[in-house]
TrEMBL record:
Keywords: ATP-binding, Kinase, Membrane, Nucleotide-binding, Phosphoprotein, Transferase, Transmembrane, Transmembrane helix, Two-component regulatory system. Residues 625-838 form the Histidine kinase domain. GO terms for molecular function: kinase activity. This is histidine kinase. It comes from Nocardioides jiangsuensis. It catalyses: ATP + protein L-histidine = ADP + protein N-phospho-L-histidine. Pfam families: DUF4118, HATPase_c, HisKA, KdpD, Usp. The keyword 4Fe-4S does not apply.
Length: 865
């Protein structure tokens, strides 16, 4: 099967070439059906090949020819060449579709070489219709093409295909301009080419998987290097990223992915600033950054690597000391290597290896002031408590005294932490022994129960103090982690800018929590039944602002987890329910998404102020650029009138006529220049009155040619008689066409005058002003629409460079577009697109229960230009 990216790329030529090669090798080859479309080179390729005669069929008083399946079966060759697999046969044929004819040949043991274009595949038919605006009525099931033993893509760059068409190698000369203007535009051809490449790649992958399955191959085939580097936010991160980037760069097409694993409780201990720097480094090296959740770091890393089909994993050597390793067992690196399977694991040494993880000391969680206050209380409270309890010795026993001292130790622990509490516990035990344990005022203890009581007091005091201190440290650590999360969210907001910010954020949410989809929904007011807008509430409609993944949600009720932000924004997640800790983290993402959405809207509001700034800029440029151009025609007119008024010179009748014509011509130029300046000023200020109505293009073009003057007589006009009316302001459209024609005439060589053509494309009408001049480089095409821009043209007699700027502005205010394109063969084409006036639908509706049939069969599957 020869799969063509577009009509005209040469798939029929390739099929015939394959037939000739097989014939030369002694294979019995016949041509079952071939369509040359009048192309000379294609017809030459059929020479020397046996061609089976076609079958003639009469349909609606016309005679058509189709492949004679019976004749091919009777001839029974080894190989049959059958062109245009998606072709629909003429009613009365053996089968409805040509691909059904091919299946008959295959069933009879005849090998078939065939052709088809990507736009005729059933799976992409609707996509092609949206791209090109041409509905393909003839399609073939993908399964028929996929069943081919070999599929070869026949491809060609869009520019090369357009050149082939311009040279007359695809269509007849009279159809070339229309084809280039419609179906064969660069954008259409590029999209068709991408569809063909993707479909073929999918077919290749399917063949590879089939081969692996048939041969029971279970290992990973490293068709592309994907290197994953694990980041902890530690100081070794930059070293790991650069090493991983070098590993990825050693292979063609290698990819770099950086991943950071965070725990779902948020207590990661990572430095957010370091992670942000490392992320920027990864992206500057062409890699991507990912953040995932996982309690088991090695398992999370390997799960991510396998999901991304990674081939190599880069880890840093452990920062733990040998003593920590001795007591805590194997680390992340050793566990990852043990469970990695087919993934290569690189352990990279760095300057922090073996230096130990910087674990904060116990007292490090409290400020110096709090610790000082704790020591003061540890020194002051036990003596004060001793004086107080001594005065009540007769009413209190040792147990009560111990409990009161224990309360003091807990208070000291809450204020100053563990060390002050330790001081309070030791001092309290000594005071209890000396003042409240018989014999009094000595450190001797007579009863064993009292010794036990003092020992238990010290133990309980220390244990309670450690628990209180640990809780205090955890509380402060959690608060610090929350602050770090807010910092990361703010940082993400500064990194995720641009039109794809929301999409990138939602991709991160979906990836981090292993979800199927993440969707940002916004509540919109629902319309009242009788008109107006209903207040926002439960009945309001939800709209999808942005989504990531497959099967996005359209309402919060469809989500497994819906995280609201405010009253009207919801982050809807689908894939699995999230537990409370995860929902808390997702809330930060929802808040960030709302911020990004608000920022985009603020940017849109700021963009609305751009026209005002442009107006200021235009006025400044006006003063700087048009002084000479306004003065030149004014000076010429003034000189002519002054000469006529002079009494010192006697002017002949011819001289007087010449001076009057000079004055008239100069004043006309001045009036036209002032009109252009005023119109451009009104456009910039948004004050131009536009009255659109159905407008006939032939009338507008005729008046525009009059405006161009004598040079307009050389313009070639090629407007179809059935071209529909357009929605436009006739006066403004006349100015647009006149400016474009004047510009084209000025740059066209005398031997190749400009051409004005028209065509209909979906719901628009396109006017194309085509010249064969020097053209404009692609990078400079947009600059020609800037006011006072001549692209280096120093001829001030041709105007101040307002023509194209005004033409685009007038076109856009009428709801159209003006875009430049390269003329095949050299030159510039200006394309004006305007909305067509819809024609009334007079076609009767089909009867219920009856299937509509085509009015006539297609003689070929090539797209009509």
């Amino acid at each position: 099967m020869y799969l063509g990216a577009a009509p005209g790329v040469g798939k029929t030529y390739a099929m015939l070439g394959e037939g000739r090669r097989r014939l030369e090798r002694g294979t019995d080859v016949v041509v079952g059906f071939v369509e040359t479309h009048g192309r000379l080179h294609t017809a030459e390729m059929t020479e020397g090949l046996e061609i089976v005669s076609r079958r003639e069929l009469r349909y609606r008083e016309a005679v058509f020819t189709e492949m004679d399946v019976d004749a091919v079966l009777a001839r029974r060759p080894a190989v049959a060449l059958v062109d245009e697999l998606a072709h629909t046969n003429v009613p009365g044929s053996r089968n409805e579709k040509r691909w059904q004819d091919v299946e008959e040949l295959l069933g009879a043991g005849i090998d078939v070489v065939s052709t088809v274009n990507i736009q005729h595949l059933e799976s992409v038919n609707d996509v092609v219709a949206k791209i090109t605006g041409v509905a393909q009525r003839e399609t073939v099931p993908d399964s028929v093409v996929r069943a081919a033993d070999q599929v070869e893509l026949v491809d060609m760059a869009p520019e090369a295909l357009r050149r082939r068409m311009a040279h007359g190698n695809v269509y007849a000369a009279e159809k070339v301009d229309a084809a280039l203007s419609n179906y064969f535009r660069v954008g259409n051809l590029t999209a068709l080419r991408e569809l063909a490449l993707l479909w073929t790649a999918d077919k290749v992958d399917e063949a590879l998987q089939t081969y692996r399955s048939e041969h029971e191959i279970e290992g990973t085939w490293e068709t592309r290097e994907r290197v994953v580097v694990a980041l902890t936010g530690g100081p070794e991160g930059e070293t790991l990223v650069r090493r991983a980037a070098r590993i990825a760069a050693r292979s063609t097409g290698g990819e770099l992915l950086a991943v950071h694993v965070t725990r779902s409780d948020g207590l990661t201990g990572a430095d957010p600033a370091a992670l942000a720097d490392q992320r920027r480094l990864v992206e500057s090296l062409g890699g991507t950054y990912h953040q995932i959740l996982g309690e088991d770091v090695p398992e999370a890393l390997l799960t991510f690597a396998r999901a991304e089909n990674a081939t190599q994993l880069v880890l840093g050597a452990s920062r733990r000391s040998w003593l920590a390793t001795l007591f805590s067992g194997p680390g992340i690196g050793a566990t990852t290597i043990r469970d990695s399977g087919d993934i290569d694991v690189h352990i990279v040494t760095h300057s922090e290896t073996g230096r130990g993880t910087r674990i904060p000391r116990l007292r490090g969680t409290l400020s110096s002031r709090r610790r000082f206050q704790g020591f003061v209380l540890a020194v002051a409270l036990p003596p004060l408590l001793t004086l107080t309890l001594s005065s009540h010795r007769a009413t209190l026993n040792l147990v009560s005294d111990v409990l009161v001292f224990l309360l003091v130790v807990v208070v000291v622990a809450l204020v100053g932490g563990f060390l002050p509490a330790l001081v309070a516990a030791v001092g309290g035990s000594l005071l209890l022994n000396y003042y409240f344990t018989p014999p009094l005022h000595t450190f001797a203890v007579n009863e064993g129960n009292n010794v036990l009581a003092l020992g238990v007091f010290v133990a309980v005091a220390l244990l309670v103090s450690s628990v209180v201190d640990l809780a205090s440290r955890r509380t402060r650590q959690a608060a610090r982690s929350a602050a770090e999360s807010e910092t990361l969210a703010t940082l993400a907001g500064s990194v995720l800018r641009g039109e794809h910010a929301l999409q990138a954020l939602l991709d991160r949410v979906r990836e981090s929590f292993s979800l199927t989809s993440a969707t940002l929904l916004e509540r919109r007011p629902a319309p009242r039944a009788g008109g107006g807008v209903m207040a926002q509430g439960p009945a309001a409609d939800w709209s999808v602002v942005a989504g990531a993944g497959t099967d996005v949600c359209t309402r919060p009720e469809e989500a497994d987890t819906a995280v609201p932000f405010g009253d009207d924004v919801v982050l809807a997640l689908r894939g699995r329910p999230l537990h409370a800790d995860e929902q808390r983290l997702v809330g930060a993402f929802a808040a960030q998404a709302a911020v990004v959405l608000e920022r985009q809207r603020l940017s849109a509001a700021a963009a609305a102020a751009v026209p005002l700034a442009e107006a200021n800029k235009m006025r400044t440029a006006l003063l700087a650029a048009v002084g000479h151009d306004l003065r030149t025609p004014l000076a010429a007119a003034k000189a002519a009138v002054t000469s006529l008024l002079s009494r010192d010179v006697h002017w002949s009748e011819e001289d007087r006529e010449e001076l009057l014509e000079t004055a008239d011509e100069s004043l006309d130029k001045l009036a036209a220049l002032v009109d252009n300046l005023l119109d451009l000023s009104r456009l910039q200020a948004g004050a131009l009155d536009v009255l659109t109505r159905p407008t006939a293009l032939l009338e507008v073009v005729a008046r525009a040619l009059d405006d161009v003057g004598d040079e307009g007589r050389h313009v070639v006009i090629d407007l179809p008689d059935d071209l529909p009316e357009v929605l436009a302001d006739p006066g403004l459209l006349e100015r647009v066409v006149a400016n474009l024609l004047a510009n084209a005439v000025r740059h066209s060589p005398a031997a190749a005058p400009p051409t004005l053509t028209g065509s209909r494309l979906r719901g628009t009408v396109q006017l194309r002003v085509i010249d064969r001049g020097p053209g404009i480089p692609p990078e400079a095409r947009e600059r020609v629409f800037a006011p006072f821009q001549r692209l280096g043209d120093t001829d001030n007699t041709t105007g101040v460079g307002l023509g194209l700027a005004l033409a685009r502005g007038l076109t856009e205010v009428m709801g159209g577009t003006l875009t430049p394109e390269e003329t095949p063969g050299g030159g510039l084409t200006m394309v004006v697109s305007l909305n067509a006036v819809p024609a009334p639908d007079q076609a009767p509706a089909p009867e219920p229960g009856r299937r509509e049939r085509r009015a006539e069969p297609a003689a070929r599957t090539e797209a009509e230009p």
